Amino acid sequence: MFRVGDEVFGRTASGSYAEFAVARVDQIAKKPSSITYIHAAALPVAAVTAWQALFDVGQLEANQTVFIHAATGGVGGFAVQFAKWKKAYVIGTASAENADFLEMLGADEVIDYRSEKFENETSNVDLVLDTIGGETQARSWGMLKRGGMLVSIVQPPSEETAAAHGVRCMFWVSEAKNDELVQIADLVADGKVKVYVEKTLPLSEARQAQELSQGGHTRGKIVLVVP
Ligand SMILES: NC(=O)c1ccc[n+]([C@@H]2O[C@H](COP(=O)([O-])OP(=O)(O)OC[C@H]3O[C@@H](n4cnc5c(N)ncnc54)[C@H](OP(=O)(O)O)[C@@H]3O)[C@@H](O)[C@H]2O)c1
User: Fold this and answer.
1) What's the pLDDT at 24?
2) Is the pLDDT of residue 13 over 90?
3) N or C terminus: fewer CB in 10 A for the chain?
């Protein structure tokens, strides 16, 4: 399947803040030549997580409504684009500064999480993608229609609360899979999904990248470049 010298991307078993890394063959894929390494590096965690939360777990289908928290972040930005590609109706949260960016990503409705109570603006949602947890997760249940689903990638939701609302829930930790990496890379190569990288930093500045990421206001992704 792979040959020495192939350009690949994916997740590593040994961590990827490194010049060399060990990866499982089922967690890497060939990098399309039309995608840069920088864009490819943004895909295996954020895009795969968005894909699996929406489709493998959330079973999102065309014409359904999905509510995406932090829709301009790494995971959220891909989730908006994947959901629109699936022809779902997308509602996303962002701060006012990012509203235009979120519209450009394709969101049908943009809610400013700082000035509006999203739960008062929204109902009858099929799927909530929770990327924030805590109070944000707690305020999300009432937006779902009966039989809907809340998928959290940050905090296990309460089964009891889900049952009380007549909905389902799941906590999801993603794992890279070769076939999904290939599908996602093809969407990027075809220009159907765009990769937004806010900043690239050299590997030697990994600490700064980590601090920037932990600030919680990155638009898209931060990528470390190995010299
Ligand atoms: N379970 C898994 O497999 C998995 C995989 C990947 C990531 N994660 C976790 O998922 C979370 C999200 O990851 P990420 O990489 O997408 O995060 P991120 O890129 O750091 O998210 C940044 C975005 O969040 C927005 N934001 C911050 N606070 C918000 C709030 N209260 N409501 C709505 N939007 C808000 C910011 O928008 P503004 O700048 O406009 O405020 C910014 O665009 C992290 O906790 C990460 O560790 C889990």
Assistant:
1) 94
2) no
3) C
Same domain as 182, residue 160: no
Q: Has residue 14 got a pLDDT over 90? A: no
Cβ–Cβ < 8 Å for 189, 35: yes
DSSP secondary structure of 100-147: HHHHHHT-SEEEETTTS-HHHH---EEEEEESS-HHHHHTTGGGEEEE
Q: Is the pTM of this model over 0.70?
A: yes
Identify whether 2 is part of a domain. no
- Does a structural domain hold residue 216? no
Structure tokens at 43: 């895909």
What would the pLDDT profile of 82-114 be if each residue is shown by its tens digit? 999 999 999 999 999 999 999 999 999 999 999
Q: Whose Cα sits closest to atom 46 in ligand 1?
A: 154
Ligand 1 contacts CB of residue 94 (under 6 A): yes
Residue partners of 1: CB distance under 8 A and separation at least 6: 25
pLDDT at 227 over 90: no
Same domain, residue pair 156 and 166: yes
Quote the pLDDT of residue 18. 92
Overall domain count for the chain? 2
Q: Ligand 1 centroid vs 147 CA: distance in angstroms? A: 26
CATH code assigned at 146: 3.40.50.720
Query: 155 CB under 6 A from ligand 1?
Result: no
Domain that holds residue 58: 46-171
* CA 153 to mean position of chain CA atoms: 9
